[in-house]
């Protein structure tokens, strides 16, 4: 009996010892892995916060990195105990492909939302033009961006299409140039017309002195001389300045008896026909 007990201990004890050592190494690997993951997450969050990335993006990336890192750590622990992880990874990969194909559009919008939040081609409050629409950015979510138009409509754009389109951000800079023009008749005093227009610009306090406004002849049209009007204003004054300057130019030119021509056509009638 004693001999059988001794043989059993001799056979089983090494297995217990190996199992114990394997568990100890697994615990050490788990502790080190958790510490490495925490350090990596802190470094990532610090780098993202220094880049002035939105809080929502930082939280999303932190959660994604945490999930991916713990998944790798669990697979490493399973491999340490001799569990075959190849088939497990294959199943996960197949499931991921199937889900990705079924949610292809949503994933495209999701990826586009991440790019927009990270790269910041615009922020909430900017006036932008994209995908054939324009308006003030009201909401930026992970899947859609909502624009509020000047006629009080909400336009919802998918982030996948938005991130791949040309985006014009009218609010990106503090100042903006107002592009206008007016035609002056060939028989009018062109120099006087330019002086009148420049006087209008100089009297408007919303128009910046630097850069200086420009009034110049652009081309000689069919009906008159085209004069460019190029003042610089703050972005928030753009529309108000454009509307008021055009009205003032019309009224002042008429008051100074400077002709503003309109398209004309000369018709010759054949008397013999």
TrEMBL record:
The keyword Ribosomal protein does not apply. GO terms for cellular component: plasma membrane. It is found in: Cell membrane. The keyword Membrane applies. Residues 106-171 form the Mechanosensitive ion channel MscS domain. The chain crosses the membrane at residues 20-40, 60-82, 88-119. GO terms for molecular function: mechanosensitive monoatomic ion channel activity. Residues 65-104 form the Mechanosensitive ion channel transmembrane helices 2/3 domain. Keywords: Cell membrane, Membrane, Transmembrane, Transmembrane helix. It is a multi-pass membrane protein. Residues 178-260 form the Mechanosensitive ion channel MscS C-terminal domain. Pfam families: MS_channel_1st, MS_channel_1st_1, MS_channel_2nd, MS_channel_3rd. Belongs to the MscS (TC 1.A.23) family. This is Mechanosensitive ion channel. It comes from Hominiventricola filiformis.
